[in-house]
Design goal:
CATH topology of the largest domain: BirA Bifunctional Protein, domain 2
Radius of gyration: 39 Å
Bound molecules: phenylalanine
CATH architecture of the largest domain: 2-Layer Sandwich
Order of helices and strands: HHHHHEEHEHEEHEEHEHEHH
Strand content: 15-25%
Mean pLDDT: 91
Largest sheet: 7 strands, mixed
Helix content: 40-55%
Strand order of the largest sheet: 1-4-5-9-8-7-6
Number of strands: 9
Distance between the termini: 86 Å
Number of domains: 2
Length: 338
């Protein structure tokens, strides 16, 4: 019996294989329920007393060797597998998916392009604004009902600060730092405490424009807006409807003629063919004075539009929430620029 164990010790020591099946049958052969080791252990009771000690220690060695052998062969196999993965430079790489630009970003760049072609510069400002730049300087004093036109998120610890409700605040900052002539557009994120629905969201994007010089008139505003709508929509037919903004006088809302060709056109224009796309007006003299620009010498116009609204029209998207969900299936549709 002892010589049999010794024989197996030699066999185990010599055993070598990288074949998974061979390693597995070696394992079953030795430590399976009816395997070699079980047999030897069962025989223990028949071993003469004088040999029990030697038999037991040899058998334990055999068991240890078998387990070590199996583990080391498995380990070797695993590392050789990963070696070959790293080492084989001819293997094709993993496909890298390319992303796409966000539709808001695409439309924003198009609008910026259109205005830069006629000399508008870009200006940016902070998203957390103070009362002065977002309201007071724009002719919306404290406690004036016009503040309710835009429901505001105030900073809880200091209500003199708020999340800007429009990028008109950037225009104030720009006028405080620059002398006319001024020609600038301010894109950015704005925040309003509104109920989220398919048509409105608390966070959206605006581009506002400002032009200040000597003798700027309403005609200049209308011509600039016609040029803009022609460049973006291929249609320059616009109409201006009288409106009210505290920072412009007179003020207007701009509609473009969208047409009534399809059922969607009927739906989104409510059967009129006209669509509102932005607000505008001549900068109120009070606003110029607040920025130390002499309203006797200078005049100017301002306009502001929501990028989401334009993107919804151009891409025929009927739910604003889709822009913020980052669903890859939605975003992948905008690979090409308009
Ligand atoms: N700031 C206005 C808004 O957010 C838009 C606007 C800008 C209107 C400039 C007139 C002139 O609604």
């Amino acid at each position: 019996m002892i010589s049999e164990i010794k024989k197996h010790l030699e066999i185990v020591a010599k055993f070598n294989s990288s074949n998974e099946k061979e390693i597995e049958s070696f394992r079953i052969n030795y430590i399976g329920r009816k395997g070699v080791l079980t047999n030897f252990f069962n025989e223990f009771k028949n071993v003469p007393k004088s040999s029990k000690k030697e038999y037991g220690s040899l058998l334990n060695n055999l068991k240890k060797d078998v387990i070590n052998k199996i583990n080391s062969l498995k380990l070797k196999k695993q590392s050789s597998l990963s070696d070959s993965k790293i080492g084989d430079y001819s293997r094709p790489g993993f496909p890298i998916k390319s992303g796409s630009r966000h539709p808001i970003s695409i439309i924003k760049s198009r609008i910026i392009d259109i205005f830069s072609q006629i000399g508008f510069s870009l200006s940016y400002g902070p998203e957390i604004e103070d009362d002065w730049h977002n309201f007071s300087a724009l002719n919306i004093p404290k406690f004036h009902p016009a503040r309710d036109m835009q429901d505001t998120f105030f900073i809880q610890t200091n209500p003199d600060y708020l999340l800007r409700t429009h990028t008109s605040s950037v225009q104030i900052r720009y006028m405080e730092k620059n002398k006319p002539p001024i020609r600038t557009i301010s894109p950015g994120r704005v925040f309003r405490n509104e109920v989220i629905s398919s048509r409105s969201h608390c966070i959206f994007h605006q581009i506002e424009g400002l032009y200040i010089d000597k003798n700027v008139s309403f005609i200049d505003l209308k011509e600039t807006l016609s040029y803009f709508t022609k460049s973006l929509f291929g249609n320059s037919k616009i109409r201006l409807r009288p409106s009210y903004f505290p920072f412009t006088e007179p003020s207007a809302e701009v509609d473009i003629y969208w047409g009534l060709k399809t059922e969607t056109d009927h739906r989104i224009t409510k059967g009129t063919g006209w669509l509102e796309i932005m607000g505008c007006g001549m900068v109120d003299p009070n606003v110029l004075e607040n920025c130390k620009i002499d309203p006797e010498k200078y005049s100017g116009y301002a306009f502001g539009l929501g990028i989401e609204r334009i993107a919804m029209l151009l891409y025929q998207i009927d739910d604003i929430r889709l822009f913020y969900e980052n669903d890859i299936r939605f975003l992948n549709q905008f690979k090409s620029t308009l």
